Amino acid sequence: xxxxxxxxxxxxLGVKEYLPPYLNPxxxxxxxxxxxxxxxxxxxxxxQTTNQTRAIPMLxxxxxxxxxxxxxxxxxxxxxxxEIITNSVFLVVASTNDILFSLPASGLPDDxxxxxxxxxxxxxVQELYKMGARKIGVFSAPPVGCLPVERxxxxxQLPILESNLPQSRIAFVDFYNPLIRIINNxxxxxxxxxxxxxxxxxxxxFSYTCNQLVGTCPDDSKYLFFDSGHLSxxxxxxxxxxxxxxxxxxxx
Length: 252
Description:
Order of helices and strands: HHHHHEHHEHEHEEH
Strand content: 5-15%
Number of strands: 5
Oligomer: single chain
Distance between the termini: 28 Å
Shape: globular
């Protein structure tokens, strides 16, 4: 699933076929020049999230980006590196795992955790800005709950942050509403099943529990979800077609 998350935005934005992971030991300078992926499946804004998922924490991902900047400057010079970063699009996709794992474990009221998550999101975007990023897309959480964090970010906090960061373009990418539209209108998007995944029963199998022992559906192109928590390949493409045009309009 991580490869799909890297592949489809890169294709949709016309960058290249696939964003290779920065930690790939065979990464080459040509990859650094045209875009790489720092994401770690299972991460989140809340540091407690990665204690449960064993993913690379978001702050550590920023450290990797800083390391990347050093490599870029060494190979092409500081000015050329700055130009690349200034004109690049940064996509930040997080919060789902925070809501699934860290919110219940925190014992905090929803509104308190919501405020904390908003602040962590804004802080992460500000750190990216300090490191040279100017075009930043921040994805909302999918329909895993109804925390007001999404309304807070879209309705005020991200636009306010953008106004305080000179030359920045910060776009809120709505994951929730497009996904609900697809779920409620499968035929419109060429799908047959949107209420369960292709893997196993489609209701509980998730990530590594989707394996050869549980099997898959005959044709995953008819399913919005591959497992109980991840979109299928066709689902990713449909979602990208619904959201990338607005993302481009807001960032350029």
